[in-house]
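Ops channel
N.P.: pipeline sanity check, posting one input/output pair.
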């Protein structure tokens, strides 16, 4: 029902809308990527017809296919990649939610097209709180639709989810080609764990693309220190 109502509302207006989502918020290896896709509200309905949905619900090959279609369709696509090193540095003075708000604001300010409406998949437990974070960087008048599951409920946000995820996947592929199998980069991935342990044992430190502020990294470094002391 919600989707039918939303589609009907879109067809009444032809304003520019920006959909935003991130990929790689939780991994211990590699960057977080924030993606934005701009199109008219009327045209954004076509992203659902194209097959766009939350990127986590799509196979990698399908994401890549849709990424190409989105790039050929959208008015504008913007991506911001936040490296592991930058995340670690910023986390000394702010939370991960604040980092995401800061970088989302940077993406919005970098756009060639100025959207009249912004829809964001909410990373915070409280959407209103994330909006307040954004207003610190974009001004008190800034407004946006910020919802959980926006990447499921809004086609334009689904598209942003896909382009961000494809960029994150590209980083994983390049890293694996250079360093060997690294897995998905998520802390629970056994391949990622084995890769990090092997790197630590060989070099005595974590990889430069590891998020050292993550609990997984701290635990592994602690275990290595205890082993040396033992």
């Amino acid at each position: 029902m919600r989707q039918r109502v939303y589609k009907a509302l879109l067809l009444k207006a032809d304003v520019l809308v920006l959909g935003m989502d991130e990929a790689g918020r939780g991994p211990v290896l590699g960057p977080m990527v924030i993606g934005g896709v701009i199109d008219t509200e009327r045209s954004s309905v076509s992203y659902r017809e194209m097959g766009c949905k939350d990127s986590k619900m799509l196979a990698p090959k399908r994401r890549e296919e849709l990424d190409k279609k989105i790039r050929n369709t959208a008015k504008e696509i913007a991506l911001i990649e936040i490296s592991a090193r930058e995340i670690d540095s910023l986390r000394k003075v702010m939370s991960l939610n604040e980092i995401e708000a800061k970088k989302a604001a940077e993406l919005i300010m970098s756009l060639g097209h100025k959207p009249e409406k912004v829809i964001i998949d909410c990373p915070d437990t409280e959407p209103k709180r994330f909006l307040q974070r954004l207003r610190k960087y974009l001004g008190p008048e800034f407004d946006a639709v910020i919802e959980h599951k926006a990447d499921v409920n809004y086609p334009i946000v689904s598209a942003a989810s896909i382009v961000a995820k494809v960029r994150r996947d590209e980083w994983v592929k390049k890293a694996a080609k250079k360093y060997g199998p690294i897995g998905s980069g998520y802390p629970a991935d056994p391949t990622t764990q084995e890769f990090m342990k092997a790197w630590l044992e060989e070099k005595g430190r974590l990889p430069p693309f590891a998020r050292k502020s993550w609990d997984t990294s701290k635990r592994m470094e602690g275990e290595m220190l205890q082993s040396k002391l033992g």
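N.P.: looks fine end to end. The longest strand covers residues 32-40.
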